[in-house]
Write a structure and sequence with these properties.
Distance between the termini: 30 Å
Oligomer: single chain
CATH architecture of the largest domain: 3-Layer(aba) Sandwich
Strand order of the largest sheet: 2-1-3-6-16-17
Structural class: alpha/beta
Number of domains: 2
Order of helices and strands: HEHEHEEEHEEEHEEEEEHEEEE
CATH topology of the largest domain: Rossmann fold
């Protein structure tokens, strides 16, 4: 990560965290930009902010505990005020590709339970049309082979994600599923692609369409806000 991208992520995260108010239930996203937000939320909590958080992955839960953020669950707090999360790519219609870290299922569940989904990114994540990052699909291991054949027949260029430290073993999600990355050159029609991802054995996919309330993007030394058209 370049220093400029890191600074842009910090600016976007700080802008989002400044919107949090006492008494809120906050969805805590996953990934490098969300990790910055979690640290900043922790600073505000230690200064007296009264909130509770719902983490979207075991990794974000661990970060939140280290930051001294009080945690809750969807069972205890089924309605979330604001979720702050990153995105691997977004376009100007606020269609998102998420799931680069493999947490797309919990991220989407938390996002769907949120009154407001605030996306924070650096300027490299803006992409019109969506391209430059594979679309992750979380699948049940039992159905992997048939799904790989279906994806290939649809010319979706599927690739089973492997563990970063052992490329002989599949990556396993928090829910004990696999990730198939669809390595598409670009996505001109996100809704059409989404309509294809309904086969039995697919648990969730990384297209987040019509979910983001707005995007806060660090751009140089400023933060730009993108609202839904």
């Amino acid at each position: 990560m370049t220093s400029s991208a890191s600074n842009e992520k910090h600016l976007a995260a700080a802008a989002a965290v400044s919107m949090i108010q006492d008494g809120m239930v906050i969805g805590l996203g996953s990934g490098s930009t969300s990790a910055i937000a979690i640290e900043l939320i922790g600073e505000r909590v230690r200064s007296g902010l009264q909130i509770v958080g719902v983490p979207t992955s075991t990794a974000s839960e661990e970060l939140a505990r280290k930051a001294s953020i009080p945690l809750t669950t969807l069972d205890e707090s089924p309605e979330i005020d604001i979720t702050i999360d990153g995105a691997d790519r977004f376009n100007d219609q606020l269609d998102l590709i998420k799931g680069g870290g493999g947490a797309l299922l919990r991220e989407k569940i938390v996002a769907a339970a949120s009154k407001q989904l605030t996306i924070i990114t650096d300027s490299q994540k803006r992409s019109n049309p969506l391209h430059g990052f594979p679309v992750p699909v979380e699948v049940v291991p039992f159905g992997l082979k048939p799904l790989m054949k279906r994806f290939a027949a649809l010319q979706l260029s599927p690739c089973l994600r492997m563990q970063a430290d052992d490329d002989s073993k599949p990556f396993v999600t928090d829910e004990n599923n696999f990730i198939v990355d669809l390595q598409l050159s670009q996505i001109d029609a996100p809704l059409e692609l989404q309509s294809l991802l309904t086969f039995p054995g697919i648990v969730e996919h990384g297209l987040f369409l019509g979910m983001a309330s707005f995007v806060l993007m660090g751009d140089g030394a400023e933060v730009k806000r993108f609202d839904r058209n």
